[in-house]
Amino acid sequence: MTDPVNGAWPYLYVHQSRTHEPSPYEYKLAATLEQVFTQEGHELADVVRGLNARQVHAADGAPWTEESFRAEMNRLGA
């Protein structure tokens, strides 16, 4: 099935939703989240536990909590 307007499915350009180049912190967080999703699981508790076990903490240096992870994902626009 295709889009009736232009005949193709719309797609998101890789950088379409970015407001800035990711920071080193954001790159590290993204790479570690990929590891956690692959090795630990997708549940919020798994993610928080996996990040803390790898010592990849929040931007302020504090260990993650479920609440701080949700707030950071909201801030980052995830």
Task: Draw up the topology in text.
Blueprint: H1 24-39, H2 44-53, H3 66-76
Could you please describe the fold and organization of this structure?
The protein is globular. It is mostly helical and 78 residues long. The longest helix is centred in the middle third of the chain and has 16 residues, at 24-39. 47% of the residues lie in helices and 0% in strands. The two termini are 28 Å apart. The model has no long low-confidence stretch (mean pLDDT 86).
| Through-space gap between termini | 28 Å
Broad shape: globular
Strand tally: 0
Q: What proportion strand? A: under 5%
Number of distinct helices? 3
Percentage of residues in helical conformation: 40-55%
Give the low-confidence spans. none
Q: Can you write the helix and strand succession as a string?
A: HHH
Main beta sheet strand tally, sense and closure: none
Return the structural class: mainly alpha
Mean pLDDT: 86
Report Rg. 16 Å
Relevant terms:
mainly alpha; Recombinase-like domain-containing protein; HTH_62; globular; 78 residues
In summary, what is this structure?
This protein has 78 residues and is mainly α. Helix content is 47%, strand content 0%.
